[in-house]
């Protein structure tokens, strides 16, 4: 039995047509499922998009979300990525107060420690880009908060199941797939 607060990373391959995002997010909302994170983008096939979203709940919630997605005509396939060995990334852009001098140097050092980049420098603030797992991005936010975050924007989570190992097996077992 899974925890009621378990985070499930789902990846839905959908037809790249107008209204798919609204249809899926509306369906989930109307049934009381909250989307914790969402990212959508075209795939290697321009006719398809990949929606990666995070829902929180137990296995029953995951099963119900899968059943609801199964009913949508434009959904081609759904994967429970979090049940696999996978790589995930979040992208963060943030502006932080950083007047020239000591504080700016401290911020630059934090950016280096978190393997980020300063992508813009203004007279009194810098814009920083950080990517990585959600906990890394969140830890960076907490470390720079005392300096004064003036603006912050994040992507939704993106995730991809790792490649097969040398024996031809998927690294962590079978894939739960729902095809419409």
From TrEMBL:
InterPro entries: Acetalactate_synth_ssu (IPR004789), Acetolactate_synth/TF_NikR_C (IPR027271), Acetolactate_synth_ssu_C (IPR019455), ACT-like_dom_sf (IPR045865), ACT_dom (IPR002912), AHAS_ACT (IPR039557), AHAS_small-like_ACT (IPR054480). GO terms for cellular component: cytosol. Residues 9-83 form the ACT domain. GO terms for molecular function: acetolactate synthase activity; acetolactate synthase regulator activity. Keywords: Amino-acid biosynthesis, Branched-chain amino acid biosynthesis, Transferase. Gene3D superfamilies: 3.30.70.260, ACT-like. Chain A, domain 2. Its EC number is 2.2.1.6. CDD domains: ACT_AHAS. Transmembrane segments: none annotated. PROSITE patterns: ACT. GO terms for biological process: isoleucine biosynthetic process; L-valine biosynthetic process. It catalyses: 2 pyruvate + H(+) = (2S)-2-acetolactate + CO2. Pathway: Amino-acid biosynthesis; L-isoleucine biosynthesis; L-isoleucine from 2-oxobutanoate: step 1/4; Amino-acid biosynthesis; L-valine biosynthesis; L-valine from pyruvate: step 1/4. Dimer of large and small chains. Belongs to the acetolactate synthase small subunit family. Catalyzes the conversion of 2 pyruvate molecules into acetolactate in the first common step of the biosynthetic pathway of the branched-amino acids such as leucine, isoleucine, and valine. This is Acetolactate synthase small subunit.
């Amino acid at each position: 039995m899974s925890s009621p607060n378990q985070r499930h990373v789902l990846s839905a391959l959908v037809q790249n047509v107008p209204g798919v995002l609204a249809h899926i997010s509306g369906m989930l909302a109307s049934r009381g499922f909250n989307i914790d994170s969402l990212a959508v983008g075209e795939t290697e096939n321009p006719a398809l998009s990949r929606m990666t979203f995070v829902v929180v709940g137990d296995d029953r919630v995951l099963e119900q979300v899968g059943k609801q997605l199964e009913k949508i005509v434009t959904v081609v396939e759904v994967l429970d990525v979090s049940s696999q060995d996978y790589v995930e990334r979040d992208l963060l852009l943030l502006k932080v107060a950083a007047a020239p001098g000591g504080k700016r140097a401290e911020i630059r050092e934090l950016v280096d420690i978190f393997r980020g980049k300063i992508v813009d420098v203004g007279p009194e603030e810098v814009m920083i880009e950080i990517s990585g797992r959600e906990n890394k991005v969140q830890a960076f936010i907490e470390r720079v908060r005392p300096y004064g975050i003036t603006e912050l924007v994040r992507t939704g989570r993106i995730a991809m199941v790792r490649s097969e190992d040398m024996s031809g097996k998927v690294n962590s077992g079978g894939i739960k797939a729902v095809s419409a």
